[in-house]
Amino acid sequence: MVNINELTELCGKFNYKFRTDCPLSEYTTFRFGGNCRILIEVRGTAPTEIIQYIKRNNIKYAVIGKGSNIIASDDGFDGVVIHFGNDYADITVDGTAITAKSGAMLSAVCRKALESGLTGMENLFGIPGTIGGALYMNAGAYGSEMKDIVISAEYINENGDIATISAENMDLSYRHSIFTEKDYIITSVTMQLHKGDKNSIKSAMDECIQKRVDKQPLEYASAGSTFKRPKGNFASKLIEQCGLKGLSVGDAEVSTKHSGFVINKGNATCADVLELCEKVKNIVKEKTGYILELEPVILK
Ligand SMILES: Cc1cc2nc3c(=O)[nH]c(=O)nc-3n(C[C@H](O)[C@H](O)[C@H](O)COP(=O)(O)OP(=O)(O)OC[C@H]3O[C@@H](n4cnc5c(N)ncnc54)[C@H](O)[C@@H]3O)c2cc1C
Question: Is 295 in the active site?
Answer without folding.
Answer: yes
